[in-house]
Amino acid sequence: MCVDCRAINNITIRYRHPIPRLDDMLDELSGSIIFSKVDLHSGYHQIRMKLGDEWKTVLKTKFGLYEWLVMPFGLTNAPNTFMRLMNEVLRAFIGKFVVVYFDDILIYSKSLHEHMDHLRAVFDALRAARLFGNIEKCTFCTDRVSFLGYVVTPQGIEVDEAKVQAIRNWPTPMTVSQVRASMDLLDFTVAFTTAAPLNELTKKGVAFHWGKPQEDAFNLLKDKLTHAPLLQLPDFGKTFELECDASGVGIGGVFMQENKPVAYFSEKLSGPVLNYSTYHKELYALVRSLETWQHCLWPKEFVIHSHHESLKHIRSQVKLNRRHAKWVEFIESFPYVIEYKKGKDNVIADALSRRYTMRLMEAN
């Protein structure tokens, strides 16, 4: 069920629960060889509304007025309330063999026998608090697990391939304009000299010819852009920034901090989404980017950079259809501010969104 919580969110005093640092959590896993990840079933709906406050969540339907008895998705304080509950329930285990980050519960151990004891202790605590897991989304007794955008193994922490896949799969340019689009993306954080063979193609009067020097430079740029230290670890003490964009057949986004990329996102549009208006594609790009990096964006206020000025008025829109109401409900669960950014300055997200246009041209 989709509920528009903007009115109550606008008059709600924001509650902030301390959020653990990502690097501290990852450091705790050192020396562990076996892992399990527990996902709760509709976690928000397992939290009872405070008695007497249900009326604040009233919603109007054609069947009458209804009130939420459990915590609905979309309330501005819902994520931090959920985090506080998880910390209270699992407090005895956190820092010993459990890491909790909102609805992600990671259990780590140095042996299988020890892991069984740890799992039993966590399950007993969850059962006592009447919190129930979603077995289909849980992972048990594995030596490799994805956690908060990183892959955890006994050997250490690896960058999740999904964070850089949009760059690794970037198509080879076939025209001067495609070279320029690729340079906007790939030369964002790497040395100019590396890209010299590509820059040469963009000069006026130079005939387009894609040879071995260009191919080598192109692949080297992609390789540099998808390896440390260019992909930095998120610092929760500093402000995150999100850029997203949409083109005719694709959407893209980049998750940044201090103008340095943390992760990339790109998706090809299909089905009914292809027929969305420009504004609705931009809104969809924002929703998908938020879904991708929600674990980092929930705790504190972050900045959304958009060259589509109408997105600045999300909170004041009145007439919403079901799909848009659902999107707005999701967006409003985040502590964001939107800042306008000229399209010519939004180069990375713009290039990522146009990646699939280049794929289509390549196929033809």
TrEMBL record:
Extract one GO molecular function annotation from the record: catalytic activity
Q: Which Gene3D superfamilies match?
A: 3.10.20.370, 3.30.70.270, HIV Type 1 Reverse Transcriptase, subunit A, domain 1 (3.10.10.10)
User: Can you tell which superkingdom this protein's organism belongs to?
Assistant: Eukaryota
Its keywords, alphabetically, are:
Multifunctional enzyme
Q: Does the keyword Calcium apply?
A: no
Domain Reverse transcriptase positions: 1-152
Q: Hey, what's the signal peptide range on this chain? A: none
* Protein name listed in UniProt: Reverse transcriptase domain-containing protein
* The organism of origin for this protein: Paspalum notatum var. saurae
Q: What is the lineage of its organism?
A: Eukaryota, Viridiplantae, Streptophyta, Embryophyta, Tracheophyta
